[in-house]
């Protein structure tokens, strides 16, 4: 910066002159300021404290604001501050400003192109010969990236905390749903000759199944739901679901595919990932306007070390990418901060549960991937999913089938079964159905109580139904000493089908809650017959 300040613009405070060696040219001082990594501005003060005319700005500040010195000089320094409350604080400080007492703060500055940056600043006055403030020297440090990193970390921590809460809530709901659905199965078996009553029980069971879907979405967000992972080819998976996705859009918009043939395979739960695509396309449908378009793209990406600075950024590695983009109404910036939180929705009341994107987030996280959103009002939104690339070949997915109310099988068991369950209603229901099927059942609320009952009972326990996440494994070891052929059914609350390394694989299985009683009876029989 070679601009020479006018004589009237020079500070003449004796305190300032003492810090400059005699004969130092003004151009050298300006060059030193220009070389600073922070933005430096010198402004001339007037009677109006907000009328700060910029007479010097170093190169760093010019780059930060996207303006030339002439453009800065044509306005005022205060006009660069987006928040007017910053100026009120500055005016208050100026009333008692003195040499060496800085005014510090942080906030948004306006660039020439209309965008903003976040900066931390420090203002100091320069006194004239009579000791009154004549000029203001300000330093600005661009902290936009630091602020973004902090916001990303806080967002990740908030999602993690909400995820733990959601998982706990889903655990309690799973017990309640298991009871509701289980007794519906029992009643259905007794109402075959009463069509109206059977219809009403079926409606209750249907509501229970819908509730189970909601708890699975909560567990998905908390990354605790059961995942049946398989290797799938992204392009083939998208093609296989094109018909149902197009039908979902209906007349609201047109579905387009842009599939990169170089896109490889990923490992995820195909059923859960299909729900991910359905949720994203359904959200896009609700946002579409006239001539709406939804585009599903695939591709691959290499994330190199050093490019993952934020906690939410993908770790270095190779990823396959699938994105769902629309040209709809878009999402405002504030809503984007909460999109993946459970029960947050931008839809009208009654139009959405607020769990769709929470489920998307959870499934992608459990698959080792990352999901992000870019959106602009009246332009559209793009949800992008990155999943780790795998070298294995894609697996063939079996077809799935479901029945409204599964019939209770008659397995005619006779073995001794120990049921450990904290929830009293659920425990009584499970014990009741096993007893009705012929088993000799011991039930207890805690493992300690169960161990005490099993110790004095003969013959020894042959099947243990419990949750292995607590003291269940310790109890299983104790019971196996009494009967080496012990079977264990892990009635778990979340993902992580924990296998006991010391127990043969065919002597154990997992049954995530909420489970159907028919599934329980079949699983018990399969274990005991193994």
Task: Indicate the topology.
Layout: H1 14-17, H2 26-34, E1 39-44, E2 53-57, H3 59-65, H4 69-74, H5 84-94, E3 103-110, E4 116-127, E5 133-142, H6 144-190, H7 195-221, E6 230-233, H8 234-240, H9 242-249, E7 253-258, E8 265-268, H10 270-287, E9 292-303, E10 317-326, H11 333-336, H12 356-366, E11 370-376, E12 380-390, E13 416-420, H13 424-436, E14 440-444, H14 447-455, E15 463-466, H15 468-482, E16 487-490, E17 508-510, H16 517-529
Parallel strand pairs: 7-9, 13-14, 13-15, 15-16, 16-17
Antiparallel strand pairs: 1-2, 1-5, 3-4, 4-5, 6-8, 8-12, 9-10, 10-12, 11-12
How would you characterize this protein structure?
With 530 residues, the chain is an alpha/beta fold. It folds into 4 domains: 8-142, 2-Layer Sandwich (Beta-Lactamase), CATH 3.30.450; 147-221, Orthogonal Bundle (Helix Hairpins), CATH 1.10.287; 230-390, Histidine kinase-like ATPase, C-terminal domain (Heat Shock Protein 90), CATH 3.30.565.10; 416-529, Response regulator (Rossmann fold). The protein has helices at residues 14-17, 26-34, 59-65, 69-74, 84-94, 144-190, 195-221, 234-240, 242-249, 270-287, 333-336, 356-366, 424-436, 447-455, 468-482, 517-529, and strands at residues 39-44, 53-57, 103-110, 116-127, 133-142, 230-233, 253-258, 265-268, 292-303, 317-326, 370-376, 380-390, 416-420, 440-444, 463-466, 487-490, 508-510. Strands 6, 7, 8, 9, 10, 11 and 12 form a 7-stranded mixed beta sheet that branches. It has a 5-stranded antiparallel beta sheet with strand order 2-1-5-4-3, with helices on both faces. Strands 14-13-15-16-17 form a 5-stranded parallel beta sheet, with helices on both faces. Helix 6 (144-190) runs antiparallel to helix 7, helix 6 crosses helix 13 (424-436) and helix 10 (270-287) packs antiparallel against helix 12 (356-366). Mean pLDDT is 81; it is low at 1-18 and 399-403.
